[in-house]
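[Meeting: bench + compute handoff]

Bench side (C.D.) handed over the final construct sequence. Compute side (W.E.) agreed to return the predicted structure before the next meeting so the bench team could plan truncations. Sequence as handed over:
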Amino acid sequence: MDAISIAVVLMAGGYAVNGTLDRVRRMRNERRGAQEKALRGPEPVCGCGHHLAYHDLHDGRCYAEVKRKGTGGSDGEGTTKGATAAQCTCRRYAGPEPLATLYAPELTSDSRPPLEPPAA
């Protein structure tokens, strides 16, 4: 084989190996992202689109502000003229309930004396 053929074979091999490594990295990152998302659990977002933190715990009312369209039309830049902020009309949180965080003390304590082996 001449030098040009060897160079072409080496470049083609490097291209194939690089493509395979890219696919492996992409699959690994997708898997890692899916695992992290599964561990986090569902986001506590209500049907109105607001997080659980915006809802009152006792009566469930939403305290987030939403923009209401005004009657002035559009100004051509994507913003609405006369838009006003108003309170969200959601009356009760209807999203997933987050799991309670519990504290469990250690099962063993160092205050007990150590067990002595039986006398033989």
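W.E. noted at the follow-up: The CA atoms of residues 32 and 77 lie 40 Å apart. C.D. will use this when planning the next construct.
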